Amino acid sequence: MKHIFFAGTAAALLASGYAMAQDATLTIEPAHRTVIKQYIVKEHIRPAPIKETVTVGTVLPEDVSLQPVPEAWVSTAPEVKSYEYVDWNGKVVFVEPKTRKVVSIVD
């Protein structure tokens, strides 16, 4: 009986480790995407000088300045609160600050 318990516990730990190791992504509702894009246009946010192609999962270089998410976005789209962003070629790129990994792109 102990072997079954330990095997079950080990399987659960492995499964949870796998789930935590998966890449994080951020899903933003279409209405929230519109608010975010309007803010970028209205505030004339300066684009980041990134020459490479950026996709979800890309790690941005250290020389790219990440910006804190404006409070106006958090009040409308609370899911973006723990991220930072850059404007890249007219697209808002949300980044996980600790890893600098791109989690969502709003175009």
The CATH homology group name: inner membrane protein cigr
Extended strand count: 4
The residue-averaged pLDDT reads 82
Low-confidence stretches: 2-22
By secondary-structure content and strand pairing, the structural class works out as alpha+beta
Could you give a short description of this structure?
With 107 residues, the chain is an alpha+beta fold. It has a 4-stranded antiparallel β-sheet, covered by helices on one side.
Give a description of the structure.
The protein is α+β, with helices and mostly antiparallel strands. It has a single domain (26-106), classed as Nuclear Transport Factor 2, Chain: A (Roll). Helix content is 36%, strand content 18%. The chain has three helices and four strands; from the N terminus they run H-H-E-H-E-E-E. It has helices at 2-21, 30-42, 71-76; strands spanning 67-68, 84-88, 91-96, 101-106. The protein has a four-stranded antiparallel β-sheet, with helices on one face. Strand 3 and strand 4 (101-106) form a beta hairpin. The longest helix has 20 residues, at 2-21. Mean pLDDT is 82; it is low at 2-22.
